[in-house]
Amino acid sequence: MASATDRNADADPHGAAAMLMTLAADRPSGRSPRRQFAVDLTCLLASVAIPFGYWVALALGHRPFSDTVHWIDLALATLFTPLIWWRRRWPVQISVLLSVVSVVSEYASVAQGIALLTVAIHCRPRATAFAATVWAVTGSVYVVVRPTPDLPYWVSLMFIALLTGGIVAWGSFIRARRALIDSLRDRAQRAEDEQQRRVEQARQLERTRIAREMHDVLAHRISLLSLHAGALEFRPDAPPDEIAKAAGVIRSSAHQALQELRDVIGVLREGTGEVERDRPQPTLGDVPGLVTEARRAGATIDLDVRVDDPDAVPAVTGRTAYRVIQEGLTNARKHANGAAVRVTVSGDRSDGLTVEVRNWLPLRIPETTIPGAGTGIVGLGERIGLVGGRLEHGPSTAGDFRLTAWLPWSAPT
């Protein structure tokens, strides 16, 4: 069963990342070189403190001892305790060496404990067990070589066993804690990376949607403007009423294009789809108005809608069908201006909706062809794919261009 933390992480990756980064920050500054140097220096000073203190006392004229055993003890401690500085590089070797030296050197016991703690923190359990065993065995020998008169042998062995186990347990705890913190830090980093990828993906999808919407909306309007402006250019001697009528259509189309552009830019500024959802979207019932507008521009269009109740078509399906017809009419104006266009819409709940736009191919491409980006059909295919439909387009054997889309009646929202 997933824990509450895992469920919260799935629900809110960004919040989980912040929480995990806070936990991972429990060990400030990580293992920075500066902190590592400070720890190494502290361990070195603690290890050499006892022999250094004796050497200071001797330099000041004091005689803390006179027997040979203590002189040997001090010499070995002075020689081997500085090795604790390199304990990170050779942890097991230095721990074993100091354990052997500690058989006769009591003053090296601090360095011996630090070395074993380092092994427990940084080495594998097998190496830790080996170093701990050497510690316990050499400690047992030390008790024999330098016994404590008032303490029974078995009590000394018990103390050595407890001290060994305590150092290993402490080191193992530090090792486990560091592993946990590293795991939390890695998990937090992965959660942040995943959240960043989701944000980038959402941003890219939003840009694609806006670009597709701008093409669908503006290409139709601008093609009408170009068509009417071309008519005025080639008919400068037209009657004043026709010129006024064409200018009115241009003004109306330009106003609608600006309004629709303002709506799309509003979506871009908001960064979400709220504006688009608030703005009324076209449906299958708006197709006659689209065709009428194109006819006013001089296009010859035959519309045949064989759907019992166009208003009953689901909103997503109807909007997609509208965009298919809009793209077909726009392409016809661009590439086959003046050619007759036939628009057919048919279907029902069981068979889905079929939309077809056909126009005769021109014998030659006119010089006034409206330029296009060539991405309208690509974007239309993506839009239809999102609702689970199919798109076919291209010249047919009958000599016309055919744009056909099949849409499921109940498309996913």
Low-confidence stretches: 1-30, 272-278
How are the strands ordered across the major sheet? 1-2-3-5-4
| Fraction of residues in β-strands | 5-15%
Q: Structural class of the secondary structure composition?
A: alpha+beta
Distance between the termini: 32 Å
Structure description:
The radius of gyration is 42 Å and the shape is rod-shaped. The protein folds into two domains: 4-196, no CATH class; 281-413, Histidine kinase-like ATPase, C-terminal domain (Heat Shock Protein 90, 2-Layer Sandwich), CATH 3.30.565. Mean pLDDT is 76; it is low at 1-30 and 272-278. The protein has a five-stranded mixed β-sheet with strand order 1-2-3-5-4, with helices on one face. The chain has 13 helices and five strands. Helix 3 runs antiparallel to helix 4. The longest helix is centred in the middle third of the chain and has 82 residues, at 153-234. It has helices at 4-11, 13-24, 33-59, 68-80, 91-101, 109-122, 125-145, 153-234, 240-270, 274-278, 287-296, 315-335, 376-386; strands spanning 301-306, 341-348, 352-360, 390-395, 400-407. The chain is an alpha+beta fold.
